[in-house]
């Protein structure tokens, strides 16, 4: 998945966590709702000014916005988990317990 789509998914995640609808965030940022939609759907990058406003109104840091590794496709995430566990076999049981608890 390309960075534009990953950034959009991350911004959508942060917006929803804050409880804003696209229209509300657009109004606060002084842009059209379609602009927020296009950003979140990975069609457009936000301008720097819009990104600054989004960060301000979502009350997140600039770096938080770019922490979107977890938004990768499932196959990529599973491969990454497998690589991590192969390097840290002593953690397999702990990871299993965590995953099991999450799905129960």
What can you see in these coordinates?
By secondary structure, this protein is mainly α. The chain folds into 2 domains: 3-69, Orthogonal Bundle (434 Repressor (Amino-terminal Domain)), CATH 1.10.260.40; 73-103. 70% of the residues lie in helices and 0% in strands. The protein has 7 helices and no strands. Helix 2 (22-29) crosses helix 3. The longest helix is centred in the N-terminal third of the chain and has 16 residues, at 3-18. It is elongated.
Keywords:
104 residues, mainly alpha, 434 Repressor (Amino-terminal Domain), 2 domains, 7 helices, 0% strand, elongated
Compute the number of helices.
7
Large-scale geometry: elongated
Number of strands: 0
Number of domains: 2
State the major sheet. none
Approximately how much beta-strand content do the residues carry? under 5%
Helix content: over 70%
Chain-averaged pLDDT: 93
What is the fold-level CATH name, i.e. the topology of the largest domain? Answer: 434 Repressor (Amino-terminal Domain)
């Amino acid at each position: 998945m390309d960075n534009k789509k990953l950034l959009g998914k991350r911004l959508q995640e942060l917006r929803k966590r804050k409880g804003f609808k696209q229209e509300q965030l657009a109004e606060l940022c002084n842009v059209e709702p379609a602009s927020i939609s296009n950003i979140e759907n990975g069609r457009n990058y936000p301008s720097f000014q819009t990104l600054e406003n989004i960060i301000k109104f979502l009350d997140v840091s600039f770096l938080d916005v770019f922490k979107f590794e977890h938004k990768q496709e499932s196959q990529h995430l599973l491969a990454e988990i497998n690589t991590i566990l192969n390097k840290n076999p002593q953690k397999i049981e702990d990871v299993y317990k965590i995953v099991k608890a999450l799905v129960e």
